[in-house]
């Protein structure tokens, strides 16, 4: 078996491992996101989602250190890693984040805001866990990556069930304490595990200024880019939170929670493709993966109809979130391709500056889109439309940077037709009818416009399941 075939099999196996882990994680998260709005008051639910919103920017406080580690170990094998260097790497980040946490805790106490204070408490364990996840992702150890995801979501789910049904707690503080405690436990376990499995001796007070500077220098732009990407995808919620009432924010956050389940299906691509692109340089092969991701994206968004069905029959108080959900899901057709393919290619090709520059354009434009849409419509759906516009701009800019793999005219037509079909079915029909029409329409469009890519994707799936079977490309 040659290196190319080995890379394809490793990519496929990694995707399956991450997909299984994400399915398990999704089940727990799905139940959490159904139980909380059902049993918590609107104000408590809004507070929990405010904490989640603050948590989305926690990654900025490592200043790119974790991203520098990610780039440094990308494509390497665990057995070839310098254990002493890795130990210093972990210890340096731990000390750095402890100092940062102390400063933010003081700021939280001065502000006398419980959510800010608990967000500060979350910083150290959260960023350490994210650092380990990035390390496992970079070296292709997706089994450990999956375990981190499963344990964190499982423990948070169990805690939520106990708070809701055993103790009948409505106070949002307990739900925030729960998340802090879970990440603290996961961090401690990961520290112990990596010392044992890799024989890493991470001294408590081993701070390396050289390690610190190198990782910040290489990872800072990636961190800013990732933060900007996160801020772009959460920009709509900031607008809703500060321009509309708590009910609007709660409903919009519920819609975002439903949209977040796409990460279950998308993570196998976003997580494994960086390691793959570090080794695969042929444009033909990359373009095949590129086209396959588009087909996957237009297929997976059909899950939105199941969420609409649940809202129609069980959470009627959140019916006003349905239109927001479908506009956000439509934007995910673009975001899935962007984050799976283009963002990973920027990193694998060491084009951090180009990635950062384009993302800044999208971020500024996204703020303008949201502001303009709100001024024109004055409803929460306006910010979802702004997000869709931002995704379209970002996609267009990526196409200009990667001309060697960009779509053909038929792929552009296919994507536009799918987005239009999805919005029409989601906004104008009930969940059952909309799902049926969208599935039939997608099958027809796929077989008539991108038939070759469909067969290639099927061929790829068969190769993953049967390594000695059909070949890709």
Brief overview:
Helix content is 82%, strand content 0%. The chain is mainly α and 473 residues long. It has one domain.
Describe it for me?
The chain has 473 residues and is mainly α. The chain has one domain (3-465). The chain is built from 18 helices and no strands. The chain has helices at 3-39, 42-55, 65-73, 83-111, 114-138, 142-166, 172-197, 209-243, 246-260, 262-279, 283-300, 304-313, 322-348, 352-377, 381-401, 409-428, 431-449, 451-465. Helix 10 runs antiparallel to helix 11 (283-300) and helix 10 packs parallel to helix 13 (322-348). The longest helix is centred in the N-terminal third of the chain and has 37 residues, at 3-39. It is globular and about 60 Å long. The model is unreliable at 467-473 (pLDDT under 50).
Q: Which helices and strands, and how do they pair?
A:
Blueprint: H1 3-39, H2 42-55, H3 65-73, H4 83-111, H5 114-138, H6 142-166, H7 172-197, H8 209-243, H9 246-260, H10 262-279, H11 283-300, H12 304-313, H13 322-348, H14 352-377, H15 381-401, H16 409-428, H17 431-449, H18 451-465
Helix pairs in contact: 1-6, 1-10, 1-18, 2-5, 2-7, 2-9, 3-5, 3-8, 4-5, 5-6, 5-7, 6-7, 8-14, 8-15, 9-13, 10-11, 10-13, 11-13, 11-18, 12-17, 13-15, 13-16, 14-15, 16-17
> How many DSSP E strands?
0
- Rg for CA atoms: 22 Å
The number of helices is 18
Q: Which bin fits the share of residues in helices?
A: over 70%
Query: What is the mean predicted local confidence, pLDDT?
Result: 83
The outline comes out as globular
Kindly estimate the percentage of residues that lie in beta strands according to DSSP: under 5%
- The N- to C-terminal Cα distance equals 16 Å
Total count of domains? 1
Secondary structure class reads mainly alpha
User: Which sheet architecture does the biggest sheet show?
Assistant: none
SSE sequence, one letter per element:
HHHHHHHHHHHHHHHHHH
Low-confidence blocks of residues:
467-473
Instruction: Please give the oligomerization state of what you see.
Output: single chain
């Amino acid at each position: 078996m040659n290196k190319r075939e080995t890379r394809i099999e490793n990519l496929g196996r990694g995707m399956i491992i991450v997909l299984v882990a994400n399915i398990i994680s999704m089940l727990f998260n799905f139940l959490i996101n159904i139980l909380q709005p059902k049993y918590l008051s609107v104000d408590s639910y809004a507070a929990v989602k405010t904490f989640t919103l603050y948590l989305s920017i926690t990654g900025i406080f490592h200043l790119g250190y974790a991203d520098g580690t990610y780039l440094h170990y990308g494509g390497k094998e665990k057995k070839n890693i310098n254990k002493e260097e890795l130990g210093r790497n972990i210890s340096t980040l731990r000390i750095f984040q402890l100092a940062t946490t102390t400063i933010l805790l003081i700021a939280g106490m001065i502000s006398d805001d419980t959510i800010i204070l608990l967000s500060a408490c979350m910083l150290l364990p959260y960023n350490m866990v994210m650092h380990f996840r990035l390390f496992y992702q970079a070296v292709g150890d997706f089994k450990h990556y999956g375990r981190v995801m499963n344990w964190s979501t499982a423990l948070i789910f169990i805690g939520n069930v106990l708070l809701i049904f055993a103790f009948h707690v409505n106070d949002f503080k307990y739900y925030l304490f729960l998340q802090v405690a879970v990440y603290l436990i996961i961090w401690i376990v990961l520290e112990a595990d990596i010392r044992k499995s890799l024989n890493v001796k991470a001294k408590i007070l081993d701070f390396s200024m050289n390690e610190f500077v190198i990782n910040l220098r290489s990872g800072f732009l990636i961190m800013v880019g990732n933060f900007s990407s996160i801020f772009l995808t959460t920009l709509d919620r900031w607008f809703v939170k500060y321009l509309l009432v708590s009910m609007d924010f709660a409903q919009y956050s519920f819609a975002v929670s439903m949209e977040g389940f796409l990460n279950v299906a998308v993570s196998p691509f976003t997580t494994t493709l960086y390691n793959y692109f570090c080794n695969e340089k042929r444009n033909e092969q990359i373009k095949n993966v590129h086209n396959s991701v588009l087909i996957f994206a237009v297929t997976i968004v059909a899950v939105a109809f199941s969420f609409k069905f649940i809202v129609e029959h069980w959470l009627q108080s959140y019916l006003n979130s349905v239109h927001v959900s479908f506009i956000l899901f439509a934007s995910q057709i673009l975001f899935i391709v962007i984050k799976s393919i283009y963002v990973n290619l920027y990193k694998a090709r060491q084009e951090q500056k180009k990635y950062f520059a384009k993302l800044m354009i999208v971020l500024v434009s996204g703020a303008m889109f949201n502001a303009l849409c709100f001024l024109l419509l004055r409803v929460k759906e306006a910010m979802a439309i702004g997000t869709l516009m931002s995704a379209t701009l970002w996609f267009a800019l990526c196409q200009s940077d990667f001309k060697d793999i960009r779509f053909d005219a038929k792929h552009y037509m296919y994507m536009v037709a799918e987005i239009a079909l999805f919005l029409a079915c989601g906004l104008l029909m009930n969940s059952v009818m909309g799902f049926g029409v969208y599935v039939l329409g997608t099958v027809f469009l796929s077989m008539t416009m991108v038939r070759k890519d469909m067969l290639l994707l099927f061929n790829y799936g068969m190769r993953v399941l049967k390594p000695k079977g059909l070949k890709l490309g």
